[in-house]
Amino acid sequence: MAELPIALDIHWDELPVGTRFRTRKRTVTETDLVGFVNLTWLTEELFGNADPGDRAAMGIAGRVVPGGLVYTFAEGLVAPSFQAAGLAFLHTEIDMQGPTLVGDTLCVDCEVIEQRATSKPDRGLVRTRNTVLNQRGTAVLVYTPLRLMRRRGA
C-alpha cells in the first residue's frame, strides 16, 4: 500500500486505491465538550453530569464526548488534505466503535478504498475509510466519506 505524507493539495488522480495517510493529532478538552453540548443542545445527563457518584452509576468513569463532536474533529483533521481539490462531500456512513472521553487525543488513519473518474474529465470520486484513533491506538469511530475532487492541472 502506498504511504502518502499529509499534504494540503492532494487531487483525486493522486489517490489510488490503497493509499494511506495519518492526520495530525487533536486533544479533546472540557471546553470542547461544553461548547459542543451548548451549541447543539445535547443536554443528556451523559454529557452534562460530572458528579463522580453519578458517573459511577452510569458505568462510565470519565466525561463522555458525543460522537458528533468526534466526527467533526475527524473531518477537521482530514479536511486540510483535500482543501485544494475538494469540491463536495457527497455521502458517508458512520460506525461508532467505542467511547471518547475528555482528555483523549485523536488522529485519523485514512485509506483510499475507492477511486473513479466521473463523466467530467476534470474531476473524480474518492472514498476513504477513515478510522479515528485515540492515544492508545484504539478505534473510536470509523466513517467512509465519498468526496468529489478536482484532477491535478484541471
TrEMBL record:
InterPro entries: HotDog_dom_sf (IPR029069), MCH/BMMD (IPR052342). It comes from the Bacteria. The lineage of its organism: Bacteria, Pseudomonadati, Pseudomonadota, Betaproteobacteria, Burkholderiales. It comes from Pseudorhodoferax soli. This is Acyl dehydratase. Transmembrane segments: none annotated.
